[in-house]
Design brief:
The chain is α/β, with parallel strands linked by helices. It has one domain: Rossmann fold. It has helices at residues 12-19, 50-63, 94-109, 119-124, 127-130, 135-146, 151-162, 180-191, 204-208, 211-215, 255-263, 279-286, 324-333, 340-343, and strands spanning 77-80, 195-203, 222-233, 239-249, 270-273, 293-298, 336-339. A 7-stranded mixed sheet has the order 4-3-2-1-5-6-7, with helices on both faces. β3 (222-233) and β4 form a beta hairpin. It is globular, with a radius of gyration of 20 Å. The two termini are 27 Å apart.
Length: 351
């Protein structure tokens, strides 16, 4: 089952409630390091403008030893949200689709679930009904599909799914729907001594499976919502870890700077996001001393990707909400708003 879910009726709050119990919820691509520009034009997929200039200027002043804003190598930390910032999040988060795709296997192992909600509704494949499931329903789905197995089995299942699952609109792998301009930013920052981290409201264990291959971000540099694990031994005495339905980190909203402190231990010098869930990470980054860069992606290109806000009169959405109040805060506090329509020459590598 590879469902395509409309965003209508499924709120970000509902999905994040589910993700709070998720590990929050192939080779067709070239390595991320091979996707960027060269030294003379490190951001070839960006149009000239304030956003591109801000990135180039920030790297220049923070890496020049003669600059008053020079940042020592050990302090060069840049954090990136994933959904809606590094890859497509509409019409529903990829990890939620992963959870729903796992329901048939869970029901096969536990046939009694076939007649119990919300599993009964998911098995129908009726997207409108699935979209109306409650937060509690999604919590049940998450519990059933993402816990109770050992961590190695989970990683293998994610790896197999991510290698085959395709987006309905483009008929391409989800990992092909990463934003080429942001891939270039990741590579550009690393080329200038910055450590890049993914800080996501999604599942830490989920994203770690593919982060290095797709983004060039080592798995240890992924900070996300996380469940606990339990240590044990199999029948042969071999130790293993089992994924437990116990929330450790809810890496969204205020949870992002909190998790950054816990897992990274340094305030970012640069941070990139796209929605209300990234607000506190961007605020926390900008509040530090010295040169800081906070940037937020505005999805305003309905032809090449999606258009949603509702900032600047864009359509309402419950997936990746970017309200006018957040836009106004960005302008007031010196963040840079990245316009997909105006700032990006191309969105995907395959264009």
């Amino acid at each position: 089952m590879k469902p395509d879910f409309p965003s209508r009726g499924m709120s970000r709050r509902s999905l994040l409630a589910a993700w709070a119990v998720l590990p929050a919820l192939s080779g067709l691509l070239r390595p991320a390091s091979a996707q960027a520009g060269d030294a003379t034009n490190p951001l070839p997929s960006w149009n000239d403008g304030p956003a591109k200039k801000a990135i180039l200027d920030f790297i220049r002043v923070t890496t020049d030893p003669a600059s008053k804003d020079f940042v020592p190598p050990e302090e060069r930390i840049a954090t990136f949200d994933q959904d809606g910032t590094l890859w497509v999040e509409q019409p529903i988060y990829a990890q939620v689709i992963f959870c729903l795709d796992r329901v048939p296997a869970v029901v096969k192992a536990k046939p009694e679930l076939a007649g119990i909600e919300p599993f009964k509704t998911v098995l129908t494949g009726d997207f409108e009904k699935i979209g109306k499931l409650s937060p509690h329903d999604f919590e049940k789905i998450a519990m059933a599909t993402l816990t109770g197995m050992d961590v190695d089995t989970f990683q293998a299942d994610v790896k197999a799914w991510i290698a085959e699952a395709r987006d309905h609109r483009w008929k391409r792998l989800h990992t092909e729907l990463t934003y080429q301009p942001m891939q270039e930013v990741l590579t550009f920052f690393r080329a200038n001594g910055y450590k890049t981290f993914i800080v996501t409201g999604g599942g830490q264990d989920f994203v770690r499976v593919y982060s290095e291959r797709i983004y060039g971000v080592p798995r240890e540099n992924v900070v996300g919502s996380a469940l606990g694990t339990k240590f044990g031994y199999d029948r042969n005495g071999k130790p293993f870890l089992t994924k437990e339905p116990k929330l450790l980190l809810n890496d969204n909203n205020a949870g992002k700077p909190e998790s950054i402190h816990l897992e990274i231990g340094r305030r970012p010098r640069a941070a990139f996001g796209n929605s209300t869930g990234d607000r506190q990470m961007l605020e926390y980054t900008k509040a530090g001393d010295g040169a800081r860069l906070s940037m937020i992606v505005l999805h305003d290109d309905g032809k090449r990707e999606y258009a949603y806000g509702p900032a600047q009169g864009l359509p309402e959405t419950r997936i990746g909400t970017f309200p006018q109040t957040l836009y106004d805060e960005a302008k007031k506090d010196g963040w840079f708003v990245i316009s997909m329509k105006d700032d990006w020459k191309r969105i995907f590598a395959f264009e």
